[in-house]
Design a protein that fits this description.
mainly alpha, 4 helices, 2 strands, 58% helix, 6% strand, Myb_DNA-bind_4, Myb/SANT-like DNA-binding domain-containing protein
Length: 95
């Protein structure tokens, strides 16, 4: 796949890959937008994540599916990618 993100052409892409480790200015912007959407989806599903009777894997998959509507999420298990992102953000905040 040709990566138009590196060319700085954000408006002509239907989906951009987020959290891919690149540090270009446009990629940082994409990552910030993806993280904002991620936090919104997390907030929408917060009660379910804190419910002991709900499958957490299923909730993380729903969050990943919501994120996938706008961005491309890396990894085989997209739900696990989102869970790891949350754990890393929480760990960074606490330190």
């Amino acid at each position: 796949m040709a990566n138009n993100v590196e060319n700085g052409d954000l408006n002509n892409l239907s989906k951009n890959e987020c959290w891919n480790g690149k540090k270009t200015a446009i990629q940082v912007k994409i990552d910030c937008e993806a993280t904002e959407l991620f936090l919104t989806l997390l907030e929408d599903n917060w009660e379910s994540l804190n419910d002991s009777k709900t499958s957490k894997n299923q909730i993380w998959k729903q969050i990943a599916d919501g994120l996938e509507e706008v961005f491309i999420v890396r990894g085989q298990d997209k739900g696990n990618t989102c869970k790891t992102k949350w754990e890393n953000m929480r760990k960074e905040y606490r330190s």
